[in-house]
Amino acid sequence: MVEWLLDGLLVLALLVTAVAALWSTNLFRAVVVFMAFGVLMAVAWVRLHAPDIALAEAAIGAGLTGVLLLDAVSHLGSHSLEVQKQRGDRQ
Predict the structure, then answer these.
(1) What residue spans define the domains of the chain?
(2) 61 pLDDT band (50/70/90 cuts)?
(3) Which residue ranges traverse the bilayer (predicted)?
(4) How many angstroms separate the most distant Cα atoms in the chain?
């Protein structure tokens, strides 16, 4: 019974983080929620008795992809500030 409750909470958490990542207007928040989704997905793979896939999901899905997306967001943030400054200079 407790296992079903844990699995149900895991599914609910996966759905909530997926929707939150998709609907977030703040890019940084969306990437952080996406990384949390990757960690939860790794836990789901462990619950499905697939530890090899869980390790790959944690390392690639939450780790490497998350870091690369955070780097991209930081570059987008500095680029958008430069564009705003240029627009302000023209006006």
Answers:
(1) 2-90
(2) confident
(3) 6-23, 30-48, 54-77
(4) 65
